[in-house]
Amino acid sequence: MKKLLVVVLAVMLLFVLVGCSSSTVEPGGSTSGEPGGSTPSETNKAEDQLVIGYLAKNMTVQWMQDMEDAMKELGEKHNFTLLTANAASSPETQMNQLQDFITQGVDGLVILIADEGIAPAVIDKCEEAGIPIVGESIRLIDDNGNLVAPCVELSANDCGSMCSQWIYDNYASLGFDLGDFSQVGFVTITNSTIRNNEERCDGAENKFLELFPDFPRKNVFRADVAGETATYNEAAYNQMAGLITANPNIKTWLIVGSLEEYAQGACRAIEAAGLVDNTILTSIGGERATDEWDNGLTKPWYAASYYEAMDCASVVIDGLLAMIRDGVAPEDLYPEYKAPGAKYAAAKFSGQMITYENYKDIVRR
Amino acid sequence: MEKQKEVNIKNILQSNSLTLLLVLVAVIVVFSLINDKYFSYDNALNILYAASIIGLLTIGQTLLMIGGHIDLSSGAMAGLAGVLVALLIKAGIPWPVAVVIVLLVGSVVGLINSALVNIFNLQPFIATLAMLSVCEGFGFIACNGRSVGIAQRSFIFLGTGRILGIPVPIVILIVFFLVFGFILARTTFGRSIYMIGGNITAARLAGLNPKKISTCLYIISSVIAALAGIVLAARMHSGAPTAGVGAEFDAITASVLGGIAFTGGTGTLGGSFLGLLIIQAFNNGLTVVGVSSFWKMVAKGVLLIAALIADHYRKTRLKS
């Protein structure tokens, strides 16, 4: 029995050694919150080499993987090391990881929060430890909707609008006849627990109804994956499949996925229902779309609002480094985006529409 | 006398708890060698902090498993409890009253679990799996899918405050382990749990009422899960319907690693506590040394497999 446990422990240790992606990294720089002060590690050669922690909501999502890559690239340029923690969508896990990073003495934090509700708790911990933090993609807000830390977010409304505008500008040239609205359905796919998702869908829906003022409201659908326990793709598949089944009168579907993973799930559902030629699918986020186009699948996913992780990461890191190295106060970050009366600002970045015809010229690989 | 001493020493050396302690020490030593910040007071507190919520669920799970049952709804119960307590506080109800109400809800869920198993004769695995879905669904319905914020500092103290320098969740964890450890090891009720788990027929013949005892255990499990959810909500400053999802899996892993057999009748809370610490120390270590999160998932799975294999050998040894 003891021999077995020794063998098992050895196997576990092997996993640790093989899986260590940055085992030689030691936190350096300021390490407030650590008892007894910090001891500079032997691996820190530059005087101001920093360690930044990225608390990601769920690393299976393409966006977060791209953000990690972009920040690692920026790390080489700005002399910092990036540590990443994957919360796997668990708020408790993310809080534990935050605590671990604080103990490890990271110099700054970037967070894509696992649940909007824990933002005040996260900020309390960071303020207690004296570690600056910037939120990305999902706002860090309190129960009243006020920002509790500087953030960088996608201009959700604009990106949603862009998708609907593209549908309006291109449906005719794609051979779609929208003359009979009773047979047309407009769907936005969201996760209602995430404000940014809702704003993307609101942008898409409002723009669509502005461009098609006579479109019947009963044919406007909001597919919500919040209650699903499956992966993002599967959840969207289930929602879309349910809509198709429940509305046999609808022959043409116009879909905007607030995330590319949702669009991918919807795409599979459309294919399964044999409605590929009767659907225009667009998404906010385009990496998955480009994968489909690389494989020659140009229908029904015609276009995507593409935004680069580097665009977001640059703004995030610039702000974080300004706080760490230049002593800029969080309240003074991104002043051009600060709303009147607000304590913090949410910097915005936007996207551009790509299609299977032009994506190779635009998308950075 | 000498022979007696020899036997005692041999028993100690062969005891499961000593083995677990050695494994825990080995985990700490290995990670400390890789990252010198691992072996620090702050990091030790982190490990216990991370263990506090799962630990409470582990107590309920251990008691049930020793009694030959299981509860897969405890994680979802914790999530539901967090949402309910947040909603009640937001509605203006004083938080101590809100806590009592939520604990009562926990006891109702426990009663339902017991009824499904003892009256309708459903397998505990199936019955509590169904209740997991019900509790999770109600959690989402209650708050419409969105987290409910809690601003009351006196309540938040339960999750973030300190007593004599020790975080409150850790104090609660230790107190509960001590209390239930005593109950399990030193009381008639505790012995009866072992009896119904070890041999239910013999227990009945001995005059015990297995259904009554298991009802108590299901209620204890759900009430403790509700408490875990309340503490978690205090720590997160919000009640989130997604909190606690999958936590029962971690609690079961800790129990099995700590020597609790699925068939029931064996194991101690002390073993579960050590199992819990091993898992959390391991998780913490993987984060601290920067292991990719996907490798972490593999490592956790390997740990559970090891626990199940060890459980198999333990049963074989007991039979022989």
Please report the number of helical segments of chain B.
14
The tally of strands of chain B reads 4
Secondary-structure element sequence of chain A? HEHEHEHEEHEHEHEHEHEHEEH
Strand content of chain A: 15-25%
Largest interface: A-B, 58 and 67 residues
Q: Which runs of chain A of at least 5 residues are low in confidence (pLDDT < 50)?
A: 17-46
Using the CA coordinates, give the radius of gyration of chain B.
Answer: 20 Å
Layout of helices and strands:
The complex is a heterodimer of chains A (365) and B (320).
Chain A lengths: L1 H18 L30 E7 L5 H17 L1 E7 L4 H14 L3 E4 L7 H11 L3 E4 L14 E4 L1 H15 L13 E7 L4 H17 L8 E5 L7 H15 L5 E6 L2 H13 L6 E6 L2 H8 L6 E6 L2 H17 L20 E4 L2 E4 L3 H4 L3
Parallel strand pairs in A: 1-2, 1-3, 3-4, 4-5, 5-11, 6-7, 6-8, 8-9, 9-10
Antiparallel strand pairs in A: 10-12
Helix pairs in contact in A: 2-10, 3-4, 5-6, 7-8
Chain B lengths: L1 H13 L1 H19 L6 H26 L7 H17 L4 H24 L5 H20 L4 E2 L3 H8 L1 E2 L2 E2 H19 L1 H11 L1 H6 L4 H27 L1 E2 L7 H11 L11 H20 L4 H27 L1
Antiparallel strand pairs in B: 1-4, 2-3
